[in-house]
Every structure is written in structure tokens, then in C-alpha cells.
Recover the amino acids of this structure.
């Protein structure tokens, strides 16, 4: 897995060597976000085809829900979490595999193409899928394997949706309103139970590799190599200075840190850290150098 991640990181770094594309890539990324689809679906519903808009909403909901479960299950990092060469041109709080943008792009744009049944629609859908996926690599938030995984799961979901949608609509049409509401409630409980089960199973497991500290999400970021992307300037300076001089950062003891008042983002680390080496050793010793404001809930 580490060799595969290294290969993926090299590709991301190579793509980021082309400057001046950040704005364009952020635009293509936006075309794969839930925010954009929340603009697209009402437009389809009110202006083109109400049935198409509703079915697209169902497809997007299924894709997003499945993607979140898969991210928890695979528990794998993003490029800028693990390699300081990668510029964090975008940030995400969730795990990496599979790419939600790639998965949603295949599910949504692929679904629209199947309904329009035009060559230009297929060409546009494929172009959007490729550009949205490329943008995720360029911004440093996904490995190529994350994107490939998104394509595979997105295509599988799209196939299943087209295969069983009509039968499901007929079956749901036979249910009363209260039965439909009850079914929706049960499905929601099942989803929550699956998510809780995955989180329970992952308790105590390292994030995506053999090293328990090597692949933490940004809310647990600790590497001095990442300070320019993660930490505010005063804290970055403190951590970098400690890493190079072998001194400890002035702060409360770790055992009493939870009892002290939360410092602001511009104050020093909330835990005492002793840096005793250089290079990889010094980076490892900064494992608890975090910003309290970044410790957001899941």
C-alpha cells in the first residue's frame, strides 16, 4: 500500500508542477460538489423534467450516502496528509478512498447522459467526469487510486440504479404514505447502524497503514513539514523553531491540558513537546502539536 501511495503522490506532485491552474481546477471541482447539484436538481425539476429532477436527487443521495460509508470502511488518507511535497490547494475533513467527487460525477452526469440518450450528452458527461477527477488530483486531496475507486463504485451504483429503479418505483407505489415514511425511517436507522458498526470496528486501528501516526486527518495534523498548509503563522513558527533547535514548546503538561482553558489559534501548542532530533525523528516528536480549533467533531 505504501508503494502505491508513493506512486500516487508522485503523480500529484507532477500535476502540481504546472502553475496557474488552481482557479480552473477549483471550478471543475465545484461541478462535482453537492452544492452545485443542489442548484442543478431544482433547475431540472422546474424547467425541464420534474421526474428527471427527482430521480437525480435519489441517485445523488444514494451515491453520497454510500461514499461516506466506504470512506469510513477503507479508512485511507489523502495525499497532503502524508507527504509535505503535496500542496494542500484544497482541504477535506473526511478520509480519501473513494473520491466522492469522482463517484458523484459518474453517478449524476452518467445518469443524465443515459436519460438524454444523445452522443453529445455522453461526450459532455465523460469530459466532466475526467476534468472533475483531474481537479481532485491537482488540488492534492486525492490519490489516483481514490479517483479510480470513485469511478468503479459510481459506475456500479449507476448500473444498479438503472437496473432496479423501475421495479422499486412500482413496489413503492403500492405502499401507503405512512408505510413509505416508516420505510424511510428504517433505512435511515440501518445506515446509522452501519456507520456506527464501521467506526466501532475501526477503533484502535491506524489510519490506513502500518504507522499509527503517519496518516492522521488534518484535525490531528502534527508534521512540521505541513505547518505552512495547516497551522497559523505564529504556531507554525513555534513548531518549526522547536524542530530545528531541539527545544520544548512552552505549554501545559499533557496530563493537565484538558483542564486548562482552550487557547486561541494564535497561541502555542496546548501540549508540551520535546524535539530531540532532526528530519523524520523530529517530525515524529511533533505528534501532539495541534490547533484546538481544528479538533472538530466527525
Amino acid at each position: 500500500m505504501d508503494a502505491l501511495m508513493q506512486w500516487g503522490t508522485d503523480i500529484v506532485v507532477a500535476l502540481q508542477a504546472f502553475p496557474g491552474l488552481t482557479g480552473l481546477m477549483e471550478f471543475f471541482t465545484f461541478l462535482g460538489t453537492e452544492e452545485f447539484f443542489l442548484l442543478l436538481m431544482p433547475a431540472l425539476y422546474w424547467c425541464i423534467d420534474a421526474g428527471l429532477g427527482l430521480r437525480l436527487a435519489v441517485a445523488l443521495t444514494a451515491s453520497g450516502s454510500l461514499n461516506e460509508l466506504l470512506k469510513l470502511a477503507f479508512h485511507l488518507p489523502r495525499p497532503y496528509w502524508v507527504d509535505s511535497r503535496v500542496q494542500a490547494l484544497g482541504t477535506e475533513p473526511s478520509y480519501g478512498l473513494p473520491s466522492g467527487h469522482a463517484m458523484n460525477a459518474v453517478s449524476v452526469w452518467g445518469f443524465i447522459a443515459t436519460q438524454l440518450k444523445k452522443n453529445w450528452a455522453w461526450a459532455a458527461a465523460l469530459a466532466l467526469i475526467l476534468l472533475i477527477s483531474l481537479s481532485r488530483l491537482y488540488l492534492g486531496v486525492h490519490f489516483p487510486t481514490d479517483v479510480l475507486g470513485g469511478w468503479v463504485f459510481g459506475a456500479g451504483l449507476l448500473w444498479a440504479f438503472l437496473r432496479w429503479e423501475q421495479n422499486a418505483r412500482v413496489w413503492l407505489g403500492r405502499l401507503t404514505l405512512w408505510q413509505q415514511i416508516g420505510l424511510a425511517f428504517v433505512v435511515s436507522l440501518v445506515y446509522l447502524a452501519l456507520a456506527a458498526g464501521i467506526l466501532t470496528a475501526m477503533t484502535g486501528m491506524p489510519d490506513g497503514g502500518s504507522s499509527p501516526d503517519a496518516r492522521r486527518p488534518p484535525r490531528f495534523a502534527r508534521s512540521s513539514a505541513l505547518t505552512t498548509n495547516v497551522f497559523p503563522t505564529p504556531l507554525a513558527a513555534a513548531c518549526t523553531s522547536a524542530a530545528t533547535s531541539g527545544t520544548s514548546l512552552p505549554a501545559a503538561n499533557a496530563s493537565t491540558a484538558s483542564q486548562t482553558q482552550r487557547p486561541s489559534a494564535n497561541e502555542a501548542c496546548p501540549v508540551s513537546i520535546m524535539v530531540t532530533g532532526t528530519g523524520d525523528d523530529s517530525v515524529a516528536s511533533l505528534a501532539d502539536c495541534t490547533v484546538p480549533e481544528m479538533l472538530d467533531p466527525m
